[in-house]
Amino acid sequence: MKEAMVDMKYALVAGALSFAGGSALQYFLIWVQRRLHVTQVQKSYGIGIDVEVKSSTPTMGGVVFVVSALAALGAQFDAEALLFWSLPAACALAGFADDWLKIGSKSSEGLTSLRKLTIQIAIAFLWVVWASLQKGLVLWPGLHCPFWVTVPVTVLAAVGMMNAVNVTDGLDGLAGGAFMISLSVLAALLTYSVFLSVAFAVLLGSTASFLLYNVRPARIFMGDTGSHFLGGALVALCVHGGAVGALVPAGFLFGVELLSSAVQIAAIRKLKRKIFRMAPLHHHFQRAGWDETTVTFRFLVVHAVGAAFFGALCVQILGLG
Question: Which domain, by its residues, includes 87?
Fold first, then answer.
């Protein structure tokens, strides 16, 4: 009991430092970008609501997530920490390249879709193979599968999660709020360890510090840097927690958003018509007249309910080992 209390205090301190440091860094990042007039260019085919306001908002707030990750790695530098934090950091680097190209060209277009996908697959494949050799990959506790199943499934999950969080990041507070709900679900599903408790605390603290400045009206956006980092972090948590399949309930809203975009693209290309007024799904409801805050709140509620339901369903069917 005494050791557990010490472990909990360590996690609480890590979370508090991540929140405090992240809040200060976010404030500084906003100040620097406003001084340098660094803003996010809106896509020409965007929702068309609050374009002027959002176009003048600084971006790349996700850089602070990386700083928190590097600080956590420096505080506990070992093989497990290096493996864990390397995935979200590498994912963030891919997103940063996209953000940097957009800022440099003063355009809404960064990396081409094919180039971005190639980079994502390369990062995911190399990390998953590394994780498979160092830790082993478990799709669900008690479910044993050969590596030729676990490796491609985990790679697909990693690439999908990077893109899923990215497409969800379209409304103030939506992606960050959904990520915090996902953390809560994973905390209930994954196998406990001291390292994971600290990782959870650091991620919770840094995300909360970002949300301080990202609730509507947002003072900063996370950019592809942040969305890719959060997607990679969810995968790293599930791999280290011994349940890659936990991404299904934890990524409920992210999956729905990605699926809506895929359905829309397929319908336009194959049927020459749209299924939704606009994709991803949150923009469909904006086009239907819902206020942005209303969409965000209702989507977060649906995410919480959906994640809890499918999490309970997974436990009921598969158990926890």
Answer: 2-318
